[in-house]
Write a structure and sequence with these properties.
By secondary structure, the protein is α+β, with helices and mostly antiparallel strands. It has a single domain, classed as Creatine Kinase, Chain A, domain 2. Helix content is 42%, strand content 9%. Strands 3-8-7-6 form a 4-stranded mixed β-sheet, with no helix packed on it. A hairpin with a 6-residue loop joins strand 1 and strand 2. The longest helix has 21 residues. The two termini are 20 Å apart. This is GS catalytic domain-containing protein.
């Protein structure tokens, strides 16, 4: 845990663990932090953009792929493309391909898109890069990993309004599609994506755009299920309607999240 760039903002890193347990641990951590804050007369909020004039708060996710206690996302002497294995690249390519639809799960509130802006370390353009903190998808080479390899990837377009179980499920489903189809990644972006704004596709700039992407994404419908997708879209549209008609409801979000 350490101080971050925003006023009164902190970053808390939770140790990596099996995907479903990681989602549980995130909820436990948030509830503990909120409870301790209340005891001291403070409010702890995980709202993506509680202050429109300050930096936002994300809930960044780091993922790696494991088989038989071996990290199979990372490249090897036999095969390495940008530090990734063939399996790792295909999985990440699936996430890249479906990212606009995934945002309906991982950035599920109108306030989420106040955070996802250029030059705010949140990933506003559809791209990926090695250790590029402005890209929504970043492959990582932490201490102990050879410099020509990457051990995992990070998704920045994920925030505290998201149900972590559903968000991770959408990411895994997209990765499975990448494995099934043998998808490939485009060339990485190694500098600020905003410098390539005319060449890169902008990620959805509001929740409605994400919902429309999800509604049209037949693959995620197949992998996640029509009933759940229909319910998610209905809830998102209700959020859009509520907060467009009740601008004063913004203040309640700090307590809600």
């Amino acid at each position: 845990m350490h101080a971050e760039a925003g006023k009164g903002q902190f970053e808390v890193a939770l140790k990596y663990v099996l995907c479903t347990l990681a989602a549980d641990n995130l909820i436990y951590a948030r509830e503990i932090i909120k409870s301790v804050a209340r005891k001291h007369g403070l409010i702890a909020t995980f709202l993506p953009k509680p202050d429109l004039n300050d930096i936002g708060s994300g809930s960044h996710v780091h993922l790696s792929l494991w088989k038989n206690d071996q990290n199979v996302f990372m490249g090897s002497n036999e095969y390495s493309h940008y530090g990734m294995s063939n399996v790792g690249e295909q999985f990440l390519a699936g996430v890249y391909h479906h990212l606009p639809s995934i945002l309906a799960f991982t950035a599920p509130h109108p306030n989420s898109y106040d955070r996802i802006q250029p030059n705010t370390w949140s990933g506003a353009y559809l791209c990926w890069g090695k250790e590029n903190r402005e890209a929504p998808l970043r492959t990582a080479c932490p201490p102990g990993v050879p410099l020509d390899m990457v051990s995992n990837f990070e998704i920045k377009s994920f925030d505290g309004c998201a149900n972590p179980h559903l968000g991770l499920a959408a990411i895994v489903a997209a990765g499975i599609d990448g494995l099934r189809k043998g998808l490939k990644l485009p060339e990485p972006i190694e500098s600020n994506p905003a410098d390539y704004a005319t060449k890169l596709k902008r990620l959805p700039q509001d929740l409605l755009e994400s919902v429309e992407s999800l509604a049209a994404d037949k693959t995620l419908h197949e992998l996640i299920g029509d009933k759940l997708i229909t319910a998610v879209i209905a809830v998102r549209k209700a959020e859009i309607d509520h907060y467009s008609k009740n601008p004063g409801a913004f203040g309640d979000l700090i307590h809600r999240y």
